[in-house]
Amino acid sequence: MRENLLAKAARDCELVASSETMAIIHKPAGVGTELSDALPLILARSNTKNSGPSILLPVVKAAHGLVLVNLHKERFQEVLHQSVVTTFVVVSVCDDVKAEEKGPPGSFSIYNCEVLDVHASNTDGLLFTLLLTYSRSLLDLSTHNPSPVKELMRALSDVGFPALGSSGVCAKRRCSGGRGLFVSVTGIECEDGLRAKVKPPIKFKTMVEREKKFAKPSEGDSVTGIKTFCGIDFRVTKDVMDPCTSSAVLVSRATALLSQTKNPVILDAGTGSGNLILSLLSALPSATGIGVDVSKAALQVAKQNAIQLKLESRLKLFEGKFDSLRDATKEWVDCVICNPPYHLSRRKDSGPSQHSRLNDPALALFGTGEDGLGCYRELGKGLPGVVKSGGFVVVEVPSKAAARVFDEAMRSNFEDVWKEGHEEILSQGYLRGVVYQKRGTEMG
């Protein structure tokens, strides 16, 4: 195993700059302590003279970027008298700290902290992309040998962006042991003129863009206000979930499925603010809708939104549960659309985001059953009694596991009700929902 790691380090790492006494090597994420043993092989590829090379700056296995190396063991003490300027690109969830509230630098000579990007996170605080530059003495590093992750988190705290992940730096905040702190060492500059720069990995950008698409809360006030979904403004209160932008693909698919249906009737199971059903009614002028929810307060919000959008004459609202939809509606529908609650854990270190915990009702967040997917099983029981022959079911799923549970619920005792197979709704390559169609052999 060690030999494989050594071979990978020697193959994937490369020399980018060197002087008489030091060199800078570029390493990918995933290369850790084995880099020390691979140094002679890496330097030999570029015919760089060396005798007993060693790593000067601490290496973080998960980090991408540049590593500073001493080339000659006998000149180690000479090298230690230099200071090194290091530049990091950091993607991390941080407290929302205003510039005027930033404290003075502490352990490091930090002279630049630039915010490259910031937006709402799917956990506590905000997701920042930071460019952090500070200088360090190699002699101090060799004497104190600090943990590179703790050192960086302390540096972030010094400049007013405490990362949520270190209980030592962020007391009373949930501790993730450094997970979620993505680091790329993009620049090293030494006193003797040795320097190098690289770009952060492309995954940093794609990771941030993905969170913007799927995790960013809708625009508007945090508790009661206006949220935008599918280009429509909806009123929300503490009694309903904020409309989630990722659910828009369900509306798009349902609209396409019903585009050729004359005067379709659509049921929104767990309607909440009514954003799904009202978006569909706006897109399908001949459609009528039914909203069902166990919360009377949520039904009032949906009613107010329907009135605001002048769609109240086309929407009926009922109190009811997933497994007894027929008892609530008393009629057949062409399509059911639903985004059930599915979060299992109420612990702060997992489950829904802090934003959702603070602003969304627990009834809409947390699923039932040991796996949190009980609502999908209940929905599977209630659907056969309301969907017309040839009608559709469009349901959001958070994972393949949820999709399997829902499929089992749809097939159990109802194998002949639904057509074989189902369609997956994908967005940006991720599973967002499933579509089922009822067989057309029975009267509905």
TrEMBL record:
SUPFAM superfamilies: S-adenosyl-L-methionine-dependent methyltransferases. InterPro entries: DNA_methylase_N6_adenine_CS, Methyltranfer_dom, N5-glutamine_MTase, SAM-dependent_MTases_sf. It holds the Pfam family Methyltransf_31. PROSITE patterns: N6_MTASE (PS00092). Gene3D superfamilies: Vaccinia Virus protein VP39. GO terms for biological process: methylation. GO terms for molecular function: methyltransferase activity; nucleic acid binding. Residues 262-350 form the Methyltransferase domain. This is Methyltransferase domain-containing protein. It comes from Triparma columacea.
